Amino acid sequence: MYQEVKHFISKLIPKKILFRYEYPFRYLYYLRYTGNCFQCNICHKTIRSFIKINNDNRLCPRCGSFQRIRRLWQILNNDKLLKDNYRILDFSPSRSIYRVMKKGNYSYFSSDLSGDFLSDISYDIKHIGSVSECFDLIICYHILEHIDYDIMAMKELWRVLKKNRYCLIQTPFKDGDIFEDDTIKTPEERKHFFGQSDHVRIYSINGLKNRLKNVGFKVEIRNFTEKFDNFYGFSENETVLICHKPK
Questions:
Q1: If we measure between CA atoms, which residue out of 175, 185, 174, 181 comes closest to residue 201?
Q2: Nearest Cα to 167, choosing from 101, 245, 55?
Q3: Which of 70, 111, 212, 216 is a good FRET partner for 50, with 20 to 30 A between their CA atoms?
Q4: Is residue 38 within 8 Å of residue 48, measured between CB atoms?
């Protein structure tokens, strides 16, 4: 039902207007879900349930946050990564995290090339148009699986990150080795082999870790497990790579 409503509205309302007024629009939908069984840790609204969409993902009816974005917000706060006067770069962020990050006492820059996300700048992650060592925190969530020459992107993340600072990275993962094949080019083939029409590989956790280590990062694999019906609607199983650029 939610996906059908979203598709219908997107056909009627231009994207720029929809992005601008999405939060008040969502309030009407949120009223159907008020309750006290769960809570979104981003907008802090208590609800009777999250909206279940494709692949068992659970959406906050008020702010539209996904499971992985609520986990990201938890990590940012628990690890005290959001410090005053920090410069933060976020690639193609969800609108829920964009809205809350813009209110912080730090300089938050979102980047996107597709036009499908709220953005302040348009960096090509393989050629980031910024001086070296200028960001205190980088968020790169579900980006690298879209990038053909991913090592170039990783080197750029390393270059623009300050020393003794962090880059948070997540992608879809599989067991075994990284699977990539540059002869797989059509959207139909990519969806079949990589799970989505604009993906160019599927990483393994250790495979991605090793590539990041090879460009200089120290990498912590952070694994999370939860019961499905946990209070904040986190994923049952989730992995995030916490990448540190040493001094």
A1: 181
A2: 245
A3: 111
A4: yes
Residue 201 CA to residue 176 CA, distance in Å, equals 13
**Domain finish residue from 64, 80, 109:** 64
CATH code of the domain in which 139 resides:
3.40.50.150
Last residue of a domain, one of 11, 32, 64: 64
Note down the domain range covering 80: 66-245
- 190 by DSSP, 3-state: which? helix
pLDDT in tens, 108-137: 999 998 878 889 999 999 999 999 999 999
Q: Considering its fold, how many domains does the chain have in total? A: 2
Question: Which position has the token pair 């993902």?
Answer: 57
d(CA 35, CA 62): 12
| Position 1 confidence tier, pLDDT thresholds 50, 70, 90 | low
Give the pLDDT confidence of 197-241 residue by residue, as tens digits.
Answer: 999 999 999 999 999 999 999 999 999 999 999 999 999 999 999
182 Cβ neighbours under 8 A, 6+ residues apart: 148, 200
Half-sphere exposure (Cβ direction) of 236: Cα atoms closer than 13 Å: 6
Question: Which pTM was predicted?
Answer: 0.92
Q: DSSP H helical segments within the chain, as ranges?
A: 2-12, 15-30, 67-78, 95-101, 150-160, 187-194, 205-214
